[in-house]
Amino acid sequence: MAKAFVDKAPVDRAPVDRAPIDKASADNAPTENAHLNNSADTVTLSLRKTGFRLMLGFSLVIIVVIAVARPDNIVVALGIGIWCLIMSCAALYFSDLDASIAKLWAIVACPIAPYLVLSNGLLPASLIPLMTVFPIVFLSGRWRVASMAVIAGSTFLVPFYEGEYDHAVWVRLCITNVVVSILIYQLVSRLEAALIESNAKTIKLNHALAQERKASAAQARFLATMSHEIRTPLNGILGLTDVVLSKEISESARPNLERIQQSGISLNRILNDVLDVSKLNAGKLSLESAPFDLVSTVQSCVSFYYQLAQNKNIALNSSIADDVSANVFGDAVRLSQVLNNLISNAIKFTQQGSVSLVVERVTASSREQAIKFSVIDTGEGIEQSEQVDIFGAFTQANSSINRTHGGTGLGLQIVKSLVEAMGGYVSVNSEVGKGSTFSFELAFTLAKKEVDTAIEPAAEPTTESSHSPQLIDQEKSLVDMSRGSVLVVDDNEINRVVAQSLLEDLGVSVTLASSGGEALLLASQKAFDLILMDLQMPEMTRAETTLELRNKGVNTPIVAFTASVVSDEIDKALSSGMSSYITKPVDSKKLSTVIEGHLG
């Protein structure tokens, strides 16, 4: 039997357009529904408690009215009032059973309301609007509607009352009870919906704030970790380069080592900028108020850049008005950071001409003075349209600037954020081809006592090689001096080598420990004048090691020797018993200051 083969034409299937699924929305949907459900439950519970409180007061009023009016069925009426009182108290006391008690009340109240109207006429009917409040407030859904309809409809049963009544009053009472009941129902329903929505938004907001705090904590941990991981090898590069440059080396090798040093310093500056921006955005950059010499601090910032300006054949000038009081309270470190950013930027973008820093007093009183700082250059200038966004993060005037001059575009954002954090404001006035003027104003409280020395700027000055010829001579003069013994505790071998070399150059006897346990052993065998300890170590942490040292009676000052610059980490170190801290990459001048402070 032959088989018939039927050729089936392929069916053209039109592609089905499917809406893209928003995974984030899909993931958030259950959370939002949970928020709404939780909010609805909270609002319902709150309304129910409010309803029972109202009924508690209402039942007391009913008992008083019945006692005064003495209706025909006084025993039944008093019984109902007492029963409502008992139900209210039970619901308020046993809050986990309030929903069941509310339904029990409705089951009993719905047949009693018509009975009271049939037995007593207009008197109980006049109280219907008050009674309808309760099922509307502490019931929901069908229970609410059914109970309200039964109780409000009881007014229509007055004609079946065997006694006399005023027909006109009854008609008005019917209309009033129905209208009032509907209005109460609408008001409570809308209030309930509004409260549910408001409560849901509050829950979502609290959830978002909790997530933000969690993200902020994660960011802080990330910053602390990355700061440590990046600064640790950077400390080795810069530290060992400093050590080699301080020795006698061939003149052919010195330029290459200096280039390595400058590259490391540039990397350190970029890292500092990124960390500062992150801390500013997180609101964790702390400012201090201490006495310092404003004039000396400004002069120190300018003098640092004389050589850089001279290398570009441009003039670097400074002008400080005579009426500027030098002795003030403020944050010298952050002021230096702002000035360093603006001056270095001005020199970077100026090819010929000059860069000037002008400091003048704007206003003054017996307690404070407002100072205006202006950095003026004859550089390239900035287009008017680009001046609006110049203070944004990772923003430069145009894309060619990064290719020509380099930089991350973070400097001016840091300037703006720091100035505003110190209570001032920054502005720019620029014209293409003629130059730019960056100005900011800050208020300083006047210091009552003379400040003998200026606080050294701590931001950009680290960009200069810490081994200038003068500093090398100073350090060499200290080599032969016995200045005490220092225990260095660090799990990283390179960090230990760097610390040992720098400390020995300062004439200090050095002992090395690679862990907290080893530090405890060495400290029990020998008395040290100072302990330098890394913040992040395996096995025994710095907090555990510090606590154990103190418990063993070792009162030697402990200085945190850390690659972390996150304030929370440093605060924890200081609160655990450490005396001070020094950050990596270690600057030999800062290390010398620490040694002088503790060993003399």
Helix/strand layout:
Elements: H1 23-69, H2 74-93, H3 98-120, H4 122-126, H5 128-138, H6 141-153, H7 167-245, H8 254-282, E1 290-293, H9 294-304, H10 306-311, E2 315-320, E3 327-330, H11 332-348, E4 354-364, E5 368-377, H12 399-405, H13 411-421, E6 425-431, E7 435-446, H14 469-479, E8 485-489, H15 493-505, E9 509-513, H16 516-525, E10 530-533, H17 542-551, E11 558-562, H18 567-575, E12 580-583, H19 588-599
Parallel strand pairs: 2-4, 8-9, 8-10, 10-11, 11-12
Antiparallel strand pairs: 1-3, 3-7, 4-5, 5-7, 6-7
Features:
600 residues, alpha/beta, 7-stranded mixed sheet, 19 helices, 57% helix, disordered N terminus
Structure characterization notes:
Strands 1, 2, 3, 4, 5, 6 and 7 form a seven-stranded mixed beta sheet that branches. A five-stranded parallel beta sheet has the order 9-8-10-11-12, sandwiched between helices. A hairpin with a 3-residue loop joins strand 6 (425-431) and strand 7. Helix 2 packs antiparallel against helix 3 (98-120), helix 5 (128-138) packs parallel to helix 7 and helix 8 packs across helix 13 (411-421). It has helices spanning 23-69, 74-93, 98-120, 122-126, 128-138, 141-153, 167-245, 254-282, 294-304, 306-311, 332-348, 399-405, 411-421, 469-479, 493-505, 516-525, 542-551, 567-575, 588-599; strands spanning 290-293, 315-320, 327-330, 354-364, 368-377, 425-431, 435-446, 485-489, 509-513, 530-533, 558-562, 580-583. The longest helix has 79 residues, at 167-245. With 600 residues, it is α/β, with parallel strands linked by helices. The chain is elongated, with a radius of gyration of 40 Å. The protein contains 19 helices and twelve strands.
